[in-house]
Write a structure and sequence with these properties.
The structure is a homodimer of 326-residue chains.
Chain A: H1 3-10, H2 14-22, H3 29-42, H4 48-55, E1 60-65, H5 74-86, E2 90-95, H6 103-112, E3 117-121, H7 127-136, E4 140-143, E5 153-156, H8 159-172, E6 178-183, H9 186-201, E7 208-212, H10 218-231, E8 237-240, H11 243-256, E9 265-269, E10 283-286, H12 289-304, E11 313-315, E12 319-321
Parallel strand pairs in A: 1-2, 1-3, 3-4, 4-5, 5-11, 6-7, 6-8, 8-9, 9-10
Antiparallel strand pairs in A: 10-12
Helix pairs in contact in A: 1-2, 1-3, 2-3, 5-12, 6-7, 8-9, 10-11
The first copy, chain A, binds a DNA duplex (16 and 16 nucleotides) through helix 2 and helix 4.
DNA sequence: GTGAAAGCGCTAACAA
DNA sequence: TTGTTAGCGCTTTCAC
């Protein structure tokens, strides 16, 4: 089944059938009717490979995440999918892995499909990767971070500000002996560093830092708190680099008999759906992941459709959601 | 940058350059060297749209999930991605939504890209969708279920057996007043029905069933248990249709002062990573989601590469992982 | 509003 | 082992 067959059935030229499908307003009502009928009768599905090749518009957008198992980006990916689907674009999802070895191969696989845009989520890209991306000429949106040297467009927030804000928040709540439990990815590292710097600037002792492997798990959180209890009994507040980690900390705190928030304040990161419904309800840093996805979609579609993107960098901000745990 | 340019630079015909890239063993060492050099010098990335159009092999596999926010399929999707990547295929992920309205549009978008295979995960497809899939001639793998009438290939397990097995398990543990908290999707419904049937067959009273909207959340689990406590104080065991739901039940049970497992046994479904590390550790039904993904990849690659698939249906089974909560 | 011709970048089939 | 020719299915351009 090709456009040719459909056109023949409708008694028009292929190009006319093409117009009936893609730009119906350019075609007479009569032709539209005949073509639509031929399409439904034959069950014709346009070959987007051919279309993409001819038009250099694939209507495909690629997104790269470290792993889809990381719940932090789910909201972003989901809203991105939806926002793109509404505008007739399809999302292709690639997993780079936190390690980064696969990153270049993945990038090549992606660029080879000539997507109309690429959304990078939460990964640190190699210099080689940057170069390829730039050379490809494909619109790129980096997300979940604010870098001084974006490849192209950017929608994110400042991890440094998050770290600072959380330290200040805990300080304001009267906490004096802070700790951090963080996954060993680069962004979490920046939050941690800023958190520690802010804490010492406030006159607090330097926070204990427990680093765990990314992706973070509940178990890592439990183990980390157990460590803190053993090594540094005086901790009275923990900032976790993910809500899952925080759930682990909460769990272990209960097991160890450390009352939250009385004995220990806990604050997570990501504000996953379950955070509000835990007992005690988990305080967390909320990132509007959905907004990030929607803005990324807008960026790319605007660019593809020839609209000028005035401001290529958007700071989406964050907020600290205060609940029982801190 | 096209293959033409690379070929010219290497001093060979385009088809020779193509062979150097795709089937290097068909080409002299000398040619291979020259072409490789030209590729690295130019940063050439093959256009897979063109390649796919010419060869009718896109090296793209599409997977459809209800939503990537549902953690149940993550393991499957992840192993699928990896198994495919190893063999040089790329995964395209589509979200159908639990509602199902978008399903046909999604299918069209997918078929239009002429993927080498389609993996269907946890969705119920319309008759229209089935027809299109069949008509497209693309290899299809349905997963996470066993249906008597598969579209093509199938790797899953019996939801009915799961329901039965869990009922028997709880009965064997001495539980007599069972309940179910389940998301309102079709598969969970089948587990629930089988669970109830098995319970009554064992001489137990008909289990209470609390249905919650899919996708399931921790909050739904809490609310459901609160309902059970209010309406049916005599419940002594709950089978939840997801681990998140079970976490909610566990949480609410603690709040309500129902000791787990003494007063209430709780068993989840999916055996997510966190299940083992909760307190109390959550018993759950384990599905080898990773195996499902790997088998699906094998199915598709075998088919694409012309190997005959002898047994088109694989029952991957399940197991009940016994931990503290039940 | 409709169509003819040409070509997007690549590979299958055949030939040398 | 290498090359020539033709064409995958569609859309662009230009003409009517």
């Amino acid at each position: 089944m090709t456009l040719h067959d459909v056109a023949k059935l409708a008694g028009v030229a292929p190009i006319t059938a093409s117009r009936a499908l893609n730009t119906p307003q350019q075609v007479s009502a009569e032709v539209l009717r005949k073509v639509s009928e031929a399409v439904t009768r034959t069950g014709y599905v346009p070959n987007r490979l051919a279309g993409g090749l001819a038009s250099t518009r694939s209507r495909l957008v690629a997104a790269v995440v470290p792993t889809i198992a990381g719940p932090v980006f789910l909201e972003t990916v989901q809203s991105l999918t939806e926002a793109l689907a509404e505008r007739g674009y399809q999302l292709m999802l690639g997993q780079a892995g936190y390690a980064g070895g696969r990153e270049d191969a993945l990038l090549e696989a992606i660029i080879g499909r000539r997507p109309d845009g690429i959304v990078l989520t939460g990964i640190l890209h190699s210099a080689e990767g940057r170069r390829r991306l730039l050379a490809s000429g494909i619109p790129v949106v980096e997300t979940w971070d604010l870098t001084p040297t974006p490849i192209d467009m950017l929608v994110g927030f400042s991890h440094v500000e998050v770290g600072r804000a959380v330290a200040r928040h805990l300080h304001a709540k009267g906490r004096r002996r802070l700790a951090v439990v963080a996954g060993d990815d680069e962004r979490a590292g920046r939050r941690t560093d800023a958190f520690c710097a802010a804490a010492t600037a406030l006159g607090l002792r330097r926070p204990r830092v427990v680093t765990v492997p990314a992706p973070t798990t509940l178990k890592s959180g439990r183990d980390a708190l157990a460590t803190l209890v053993r090594e540094a009994g005086e901790t009275d507040a923990v900032f976790c680099s993910s809500d899952l980690l925080a759930l682990g900390v909460l769990t272990e705190a209960r097991v160890q008999g450390w009352a939250v928030p009385q004995r220990l304040a806990v604050i997570g990161f990501g504000d996953l759906e379950f955070a509000a419904d835990l007992d005690p309800a988990l305080s967390s840093v909320r990132i509007q992941g959905g907004d990030i996805g929607r803005q990324a979609a807008r960026f790319i579609v605007d660019r593809v459709e020839g609209r000028e993107v005035a401001e290529k960098v958007v700071d989406i901000g964050f907020s600290i959601v205060e609940r029982q745990s801190a």
